[in-house]
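Archive entry. Fields below.
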Amino acid sequence: MSDFEKFKDKLIKAKSSQEVETIRAEIFGKNGLINLEFKKIGSLPQEDRKKVSSEINNIKQELTKLINEAAAKLLDSEINKQVEREIDDVTLPEKDFKIGKIHPVSQVIDEISSIFSEIGFSVEEGPDIETEYYNFTALNTPENHPAKDMHDTFYIEENMKTLLRTHTSPVQVRTMLKGKPPFKIIAPGRTYRSDSDQTHTPMFHQLEGLHIDKNITMGHLKGCLNYFVKEFFEVDKIKMRFRPSHFPFTEPSAEVDIGYRIENNKIVIGEGDKWLEILGCGMVHPNVLKNSKIDSNKYQGFAFGIGIDRLAMLKYGINDLRSFFECDYRWLNYYGFDPLDVPTNYRGLSK
Amino acid sequence: MKFTIDWLKDHLKTNKTEAQIIEKLNNTGLEVEHVESLKNELSDFVIAKIIKAKKHPNADRLKLCHVDIGQKELVKVVCGGPNAKDELLTIYAPPGSTIPKNNMKLEVSKIRGETSYGMLCSESELNLSDESEGIVELNQNYKTKIGKSYFKNSLENIIELSITPNRPDCLGIRGIARDLSASGYGKLIDNKNIKIKKFGKHTLKVKIEKSKNQACSIFGSCLIKNIKNKESPDWLKKRILSLGLRPISAVVDITNYVMFDLNRPLHAYDVDKIKKGIIVRNSKKGESFKALDNKEYNLDDNMCVISDHEGVLGLGGVIGGTRSGTELNTKNILLESAYFDPEITRKTAKKLQLNSDAKFRFERGIDPNSIQIGLERASEMIVKICGGEVSKLDIQSTKKIKINKILFDPSLASKTIGIKIKTNEIIKILEDLGFKIKKKRKILKVEIPTWRPDVYGQIDLVEEIIRIKGFDKIQSVEPEKKRLKPTLDFFQRHFHLAQRSVATKGYLETITWSFTDEKNNNSFRENKEEVKIINPISSDLNVLRSSLYPNLILFLKKNLDRGFENQSLFEIGPSFIGKKPGQQITIICGIRKENLLNIYDIKKDVVKTLVELGIGKNETKINTKTPSYYHPGRSGSIITKNNNKLLAYFGQIHPKIIDNTYGFEIFLENLVKYKSQNKKDKPTITFSDYQKSERDFAFVVQKNFQAQELIEIISNVDKSLIKNVKIFDVYEGKNIPTDKKSIALKVTIQSDFKTLNEIDLNEVSQKIISNVEDKASAKLRS
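PREDICTED_STRUCTURE:
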């Protein structure tokens, strides 16, 4: 059994895991020490066999433990040595990656949709090419009315019967015609007016809202828009005023202004003594309900129209409307949003 | 519509301040667009006299003027006004002052080598009028005021309102006063009884011809004889200037004054230039006349003209003509006060592209009952300023003035607005606005004043009530959170997912115009209908896009010019396939330009997007049929296996369009339709824990043989055992015939029921080899 002591000594002196593995083979291999000892058992007298074999087993266990320990220790130190040699300059740049971006208008549409979703609105859409009827007539804007002067229209057909929609309001009529009240919808989309200067682009984005039910009053309109503006600008309090105005398709009509002030050349929303117009709204005109086959004696409600681009400009401090559509790589990168930054109510609208 | 508080007070007795009035106007629906303060900016502008005007030594069109500005020394000013001459009285702007028209701040500067200290101004530069031809010429009355501020006496703020098209009554200052008074901001002053002596009969015959579409239904007029037309007195000029108009002569200024004061357009004719009498009739095609804007207009059929026996004098309700225009030496005038139909007037003006203050009012609807007061008011002023004798009024009319009445249930107000409003309060508001009311039990019989053509239904009265009561009185109702249906439908959910899915692959989202250049569009239109815009904003945006590529490529190129060589852009939006509403489809289109990019990069982007949108790779196949704007050998279509629905194109954009650029298009409607038709619940899955084996093969196939088919053949050998087939190499070249290629692939074999032994695996391998050799005319590469 002194051989075992010899092996113990060898193990302690072993300098590499390879040496340890050699020792392991010498002890446990086919012709290793242990096997040899076991083979010897056959020649022992019957009464000694049990005792010897249990002794060998004990030694076997002890040696296994010792070998494993030695192996682990050596492996550790070998890895440590290897790691010591492996020094990379971690200040070198990472591998290239590209970050895509979501356009601010898309982001703001998602924000607005998320806000209105919370109070039960669903999203509807309508076609970009519209008929004169849906864009004007059904919306109580007769032919040859001065109200039309505010809509410089692009026409698709010489007879002026089809056109590019000048607002998202036709979606109101389309939605009501294909369903039954109550209605509680928003409709974002592209809109077009033949107008191009510092503050106008021939294409822009609007969001229409419509809520029709049995007893929807101007109080609901006010509450709804109040809620929206506060949520959108992510403030607790906002200075807001409803100013009477005129749209052919709502009556009474109002424009909504929010208070603001200029601080260090930046616009601060919600307070201050200046007013900024942000949307138009009103109670849906009985003629529009009639054209949409809704009984205005039973149902009534409100509608509103929001300029999406303008809200995006205000919230995110973008100065030039035209830049939205110029696709400048730098602009898209700078003002765009990370695609994983999905505005939701529970995670918050903006980060 | 511009006015001053001073003028407003002619009609409104009020002790409210300007700021209070402005706030109230906003709150009643008369939006204050702008308050123009003339005070500080303009006090710098002084009355000056040119002592000597010489030609500029280095410029033919410029003059070098020595100007007396009331100080010891003359100043030297370079002036471009052709009318600059010795002794001229004019207005001088010193260095440091700001020119109102363009907000330019003046500095001492050298103009063609001569130093100019300040400048001499035109009326247009001072926003006095549009006159920009020469510098201001002041009359001799200003001779004693040299060096004094020109604007000293007109320091009132000018308030500019943006009047909505439904409120023609507020295109006159009296209307504004009436609204303020109804809102409790003062007392409307009664129109004074106008007392003018009327001398004799109206001797000029006026006739309204009866015809279809006759726009004129009332034509009132009077003659004023022996007047002495002249420059208007200062107070009148000041008011005319505050409207943003240019004073012309007393007669013209007075007609303008009454138009803005009472919203009553008038026109004055020089009677001596009228042949025999006035005929109001419809024009005949080919007639023409020279209007007061000095342009010649060729008329169509059926435009309302005021004519005499010689021809057209003017366009009714739109503009007068030069032939019968009044001048300073006019002795006898005919004053017209008429009613023209809004719609016909608008049509005429639109056809001729003519705009005027009168037209702006008539197309919105003028009070037909203001004919007489207009004539009287103007006559009174003319006689006072120019002398003369006024004839009796002559009022021709073809229709009785209709008085509109509405039966109004006052409970509608509370029902719409959401707060209780008492009937008495309703009656008071409406009466203060000029409505006449008779109460019949619970219903009100409301007579609409003739100056309010916009009010014709009950809801219009509700609007009147709440706008005067104040929108701030409406009580906000907290929104209910009840949802009627899901926020987004199935399609919309895919839209949003697709948008963000593409962006996560490094693409920047753009929004480009829905219109594009016809020529660029044609490269992508294929056989789709061209959708032209009749009146495009510019000739390079004259068709609706048939594809998202033309604009994306245009902007990609612009960014290349900016020095960005690696770009990935995408857009999600409409592409148009016809001229009717709804003939549009939604496309997600991405383009990439990078060094060392190849077809498999773009394929990865599009396939991964499809997978993220829920289209499994095994549900689709690729074919090589693509539109002509793709590189024919480097592009493919992704179609569904079960019904050949086109989901996407991908590939290199044809090099004749742009070099080295790759792109993809995903057709969202197709995708969503396929998905909704093939909706399947995910089956419960069991995972096999038995040993997985991999076997590699290399097959030599024809060069044009598609890898996709090879995978298909192998997968079909034994669907229960073959779990995956992955190509890891394609080789052409040495040791392979030139018309062939070698495809190397790894097949994963696994049973769900047992561990496969060598015999089982060999059996599968043999089956794979024989199937491939058989169906793909391939050879196992040894």
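CURATOR_NOTE: The domain at 104-335 of chain A is CATH 3.30.930.10 (BirA Bifunctional Protein; domain 2).
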